[in-house]
Amino acid sequence: MGIFRRRRATGWGVDGTARGRRSQERRRVADGIRHLEEFAAERTGVEAFVEPPTAVTSTTVVLVARSGEWTRRRVPDARAAHELGSRLGIPVYDAGVVGYPQRMREWNRRRAEESSRAASEAGDGDPTG
Question: Residue spans with biased composition (Basic and acidic residues) (predicted)?
Answer without folding.
Answer: 107-116
